Amino acid sequence: MSRKVVLRDSVLTLTNNRIEGFLDRVVTRLGTSAKVDVPKRFLNRRVYVIVTKDVVKSDAD
């Protein structure tokens, strides 16, 4: 299994011959913390969360 994640000068390089896909989600409030919902089929999988600088307005704000 080869895995390579590099972030240099705001350029991301991510390579892995075993990547199954990408998800676009919004982080939501959970008590005094936060969470990202993902499908149950990804239980026990390694994931990387990439945080962008974009702010999404929610109905709760």
Provide key terms for this protein:
61 residues, mainly beta, two-stranded antiparallel ribbon, 30% strand
Low-confidence stretches: none
Count of DSSP strands: 4
Q: Would you list the SSEs in sequence order as H and E?
A: EEEE
**What's the tally of helices?**
0
Query: Average pLDDT, to the nearest integer?
Result: 83
CA(first)-CA(last) distance: 43 Å
Q: Helices and strands: which structural class?
A: mainly beta
The best one-word shape is extended
Going across the major beta sheet, what is the strand order?
Answer: 1-2
Helix content: under 10%
Major β-sheet annotation: 2 strands, antiparallel
Q: Nearest-angstrom radius of gyration?
A: 14 Å
Report on this structure:
The protein has a domain at 21-52. It has no helices and 4 strands. The model has no long low-confidence stretch (mean pLDDT 83). A hairpin with a 2-residue loop joins strand 3 and strand 4 (33-35). The chain has strands at 3-8, 11-16, 28-30, 33-35. With 61 residues, the chain is mainly beta. It is extended and about 40 Å long. A two-stranded antiparallel ribbon has the order 1-2. Strands 3-4 form a two-stranded antiparallel sheet. The protein is 0% helix and 30% strand.
What layout of secondary structure does this protein have?
Blueprint: E1 3-8, E2 11-16, E3 28-30, E4 33-35
Please provide a brief summary of the model.
This protein has a domain at 21-52.
